[in-house]
Amino acid sequence: MIRQYTHLQGLKRNFKISIVFDKKGQLWAGTDNGLEIIDLKKAKTRYIDINQGLAGNLVIACYPAGDNEMWIGTGLGLNLIGQNGETVHPLGNEIVISLMEDSEDKIWVGTDRGISIIDKQKKVVRYLDRSGGLANNLIQSFLRHNKQIWVSTNGGLDIIDPVQKTLEHMGKKEGLVSDTIYVVFKDRENKIWLTGPSNGVNMIDSSKKIILHASTENGLSDVNIQDVKQDKEGLVWLATRRNGVDVYNPETGTIKNLSGLPGLEGTSVRMMLVDEYGRIWIGTHQGIYIADKKLGTITTVASGLGLSGQRVLSLQEYNGSVIAGTNNKAIFITAPVPSYVSNDSNAAQQWKVTGLDGSEVLTREQTNAWNTDLATKNGQYLWGDRGLTVIDNIKANTDSSVTLITGLHIMNQRQYFVKDKRLGDNDTLWTADSFYTRGQEPIIPGYSKTKGLKMDSVTGPYNLPVNLEIPYNNNYMQFLFGQLNSGQQDTVWYSYFLEGIDKNWSAPTANLSTENYLNLPPGDYIFKVSSKGPGGSWGAPATLSFTILPPWYKTWWAFALYALIAGALIRIYVVYRSRQLKKENKLLEEKVNLRTKQLQKSIEDLKSTQTQLIQSEKMASLGELTAGIAHEIQNPLNFINNFSEVNTELIEEMKEEIEKGNFEEVKALAFDISANEQKINHHGKRADGIVKGMLQHSRTGNRQKELTNINNLADEYLRLAYHGLRAKDKLFNAATETRFDESIGDINVISQDIGRVILNLITNAFYAVTEKKKVAGAGYEPKVMVTTKREGKKVMVSVRDNGLGIPQKVLDKIFQPFFTTKPSGQGTGLGLSLSYDIIKAHGGDLKVETKEQEGAEFIIILHQ
């Protein structure tokens, strides 16, 4: 059976140049006046020519490029057409102005002839125009509000209730400033904002039943408001026709114009979009601007940065990305998650701009309308122009194009490379204005004497050199490149990078060559270049590796020679220095020996001096003690002498009474003599005890601990110290006070050592009050208090005075050997040091509490 398809079956041209079947079973027929796509099963025909974006009407060849694409070769270029885009005409040839999907998945299409409501499930279309109650057939936009559809028209606002099947109208008569309304918008407080071409903004507050109006008199920069959006902070953004964006703050009632920001100055804003992170996407006639208030940044997406056209006509959010409809196909934009959400320091490098798969061949006849596209819930993209184009399965185009390096210039001359010596030495081709390599030895016109250029082989369609080595004085280079894919109608953008020189990839450029790289230093380099494919994605980069050779004095063997010379010089220097060091070491050893002998002598002298100082301190302590002892011995000696004289007189009297025979008087005198003898004996023993104590105090050698009454010891040394100072200074006088804890009893100590410590502390206390008396005046009364106390297993002996106290700056030094606050010649600085060592040897502590100008208290703590 033979079936025939001619113009009688719907074809426009009977003359066919090429035909091919795609994987869906559709027949693609190329003609001399466009392309015809025939669905034999459904008996439908699509027709595509230059009006739908075809490069030329003469279709020479059709070739499948994949599962869903077809290459179309024409007399004027190559097209890549997606098979997912199916053009339907449920509206005829009407101009689509706005689109909306309602809660029941119905598509509301606003056109210049009214509203078409497409029910995809029932496959029916309902129409609504002025004859059905609309104020005007030119539909500008839609808004879903409380199960109602608010329709902006050129005749006012129509409110449609699909459930109640009612239609209300609002215009000038109802309080609006104008009947022409571009956009109807509902904010968070359910207030309705209406914009128009020349009358600013109307705001309807249903709760207060008022309509407010704002124009340039109220702070707007333009009365032509194209779109209204509200951000997450409640600010209302108004897109103006001529002056960028105005931002209205409902709380303060102020308006701020953003036209002065980079990229927005003098920009015609068509529509806006608020994404899930609160960023404002602003579509203009010069591209897209994304404002991030938290980061204070504005990001630009324009034609040079992946956008297929400067004029943005729609913005749709879909699965975390934004689909931008332009006058030439749709673009899929995936923005990075902001750093304040993801803490990603590389967020600025994560922008991705690709084409919407299936929209490659779409162009728009109407470029004055906006928001004419729609991404539906079931994953379809509706392209509104004259009629609708439906793209199934919304996804980004992932195809890329092959980039090739086509050549390079060295020293401003184009280079050409061959593999072998197929040409003779006398061939005139060698003398052309170009450069050829012959095996390992290239010939360079103009540099015929230079033979340093080398390579291993050539590769690729453009005979690029492999492992190219270039002399250091031929280091001016420029690279040429191109794209293998010729199927896109847009400008091809390239970006390149010379590894080893460039820090970042170059800005996108349409040029087919790089700038000149001048004075490249010696080293290894890799040149990379990438181009943007039809889908807007960057393809894998083409690479070329080469090496700039260093001059001879920078080569490895030159550095090896430098190293040998340096090594020899170092060796000579090391030998010389070694000999010098041996001489210096010998002299140093002699000096060290001499200094060692001198140091040993100094140490011996120091030990002798230290011994003398310690002995001096002991003698000073002994002198203080001796003076007190001498005073103490004097009293009993006086008694002994007095009673001896009295007894002598009594004996004489007794002799006289014996001669007289007065025996009663003799007995009385004998009794007195006996009493005086007892007193002489008592005071003699007292003197003996004082002498024994003195001998015990001055005793040297190993001493043993013995039970000692610490109260008696402290009392005795208090009196000895006092009388010793009185013996040296008759004018010395100080009050003394004792508070002894009788519960202490006898404790096990070396009494002469503890006595020496107590004597030293009491002597220092008397010295402190004496010095203060010299400067304090008549009202000052010197006083020294000695106290003993038991606390558990600790026995404390305290010596307190009301003298000058110890300055804080020297408090940490008072127990150091040879440190003293007394004038030169009055102290050795060993008293407190030796006292500290004695107490530590007893397993106790010696502490001090002081306050300048108020006195000091030394506390001996003995553990029993």
Report on the structure:
By secondary structure, this protein is an alpha+beta fold. The protein contains six helices and 53 strands. The protein has a five-stranded mixed sheet with strand order 48-50-51-53-52. Strands 1-2-3-4 form a four-stranded antiparallel sheet, with no helix packed on it. A hairpin with a 4-residue loop joins strand 23 (245-249) and strand 24 (254-257). It is elongated, with a radius of gyration of 57 Å.
Topology diagram in text:
Layout (H helix, E strand, L loop, with lengths): L15 E6 L5 E5 L2 E6 L4 E5 L10 E6 L4 E6 L2 E6 L2 E4 L7 E6 L5 E5 L2 E6 L4 E5 L10 E7 L2 E6 L2 E6 L4 E5 L12 E4 L5 E4 L5 E5 L4 E5 L10 E6 L5 E5 L4 E5 L4 E4 L11 E6 L5 E5 L2 E6 L4 E5 L10 E7 L2 E6 L3 E5 L4 H4 L9 E4 L17 E3 L5 E5 L1 E5 L11 E8 L2 E2 L21 E3 L2 E3 L13 E3 L4 E3 L1 E3 L6 E7 L10 E6 L23 E9 L10 E7 L7 H105 L2 H35 L8 E4 H19 L6 E5 L6 E4 L1 H26 L6 E9 L2 E8 L29 H11 L3 E7 L3 E9 L1
Parallel strand pairs: 42-46, 48-50
Antiparallel strand pairs: 1-2, 2-3, 3-4, 5-6, 6-7, 8-35, 9-10, 10-11, 11-12, 13-14, 14-15, 15-16, 17-18, 18-19, 19-20, 21-22, 22-23, 23-24, 25-26, 26-27, 27-28, 29-30, 30-31, 31-32, 33-34, 34-35, 36-37, 36-43, 38-39, 40-41, 44-45, 45-46, 47-49, 50-51, 51-53, 52-53
Helix pairs in contact: 2-3, 2-4, 4-5, 5-6
Summarize the structure.
The chain is 23% helix and 33% strand. It is α+β, with helices and mostly antiparallel strands and 864 residues long.
Keywords:
5-stranded mixed beta sheet, 53 strands, 23% helix, 4-stranded antiparallel beta sheet, alpha+beta, 6 helices
